Amino acid sequence: MDLFKGAERLMAMSDQSWARHANPLSAWSRLLSAPLFFLALWSPFWIGWWGAGPIAAMAVWTIANPRLFSPPSHTRSWATQGVLGERAFLNRTNVPIPEHHRRAALLTTGLSATFLVPVLAGFVLRDFWLALTAWHAVVLSKVWFVDRMVWLWRDVYATHPVYRAWNDADWTASLKVELNDGPQATAGIENHDRT
Q1: C-alpha 120: how far from its chain's center?
Q2: How far apart are CA 175 and CA 121, in angstroms?
Q3: Which of 60, 83, 152, 157 could bridge 167 with an S-S bond, Cβ 3.0-4.6 Å?
Q4: What is the CB neighbour count within 10 angstroms for residue 81?
């Protein structure tokens, strides 16, 4: 199974939640909350079982964040383009992307995974500074991933009608895949009436 698609399923991301997550406030607030997420995970070392509260709060924040903001009115923001690029990357089996973007996504995600090893070591050893430093390396790898998704978006937004609609901030456009056509199925466009 595709790790990226699995993460999308875990977050239960719909077209509407993706559109809301494309709001720069969603993307930036999620990124800026990374230190708080680390402190929540570390809190049981400081306050014992009371640390379950901050961990639960950050879990709720992680799930709620992509749904809290309204869809953006334009797509000029770096953060918005990063989210749209991630959607294009997730849809790469239906609308192919340039190979160098696929390799970059795997590299940056691999770096994040690699830096998780010293994060875990820091937790096991109760070494706050090791865990914190490695945690921020994970975050920087994620920022690099998002930056590459911006580049991807700028390369592909004109290649598909749904992508062009999203680039014009038309959040009613939806990818629709004909499952009977197998892995080479093409994505179509489905527009819903605006309210």
Answers
A1: 22
A2: 41
A3: 157
A4: 24
